[in-house]
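@channel sequence for tomorrow's demo:
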Amino acid sequence: LSPAHAETVYRMAVNGAYADGNDAVMSNHRDVFPYVAYHAIHDDRARPNHIALESLGLNGTNIYRVDDPVIQTFRPPWDYNCRCGRTFLTISDAAASGVKEAQEWRDSGVPPKKPARVKWPKFRPPPGFVNDSLVPDSSRRHPGSQR
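structure tokens (generated this afternoon):
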């Protein structure tokens, strides 16, 4: 492997293992942390699709329901050399960040009957990074990431 390829393999393995570990720990705490914030790295290597996910969440934020298929599909790392990250959030955290569903939930103490979901973005992860069972049929016709 070239040094650049070795770095990519290493980075993807470490970031993927870190995300898998977070998911394993947090899977038992979704009642306490029902939201997740998506964070892109803002530098000259950041791709527009990665940054876009910071405004495609609930109410134009970077916050998604943790069980939303969109954020499960775009769970970092979701593309080669992806350096994005996630932060799990409580209802109060999401409410303070402007998520209306979380504000109503926090104020009433009653969870929403139908959890809020976001629209699918027009871009997709490259093949091999996505669980196809999460992606709607109409979007499977457009695999791959637009850069």
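heads up for whoever presents: Confidence is low (pLDDT under 50) at residues 138-147.
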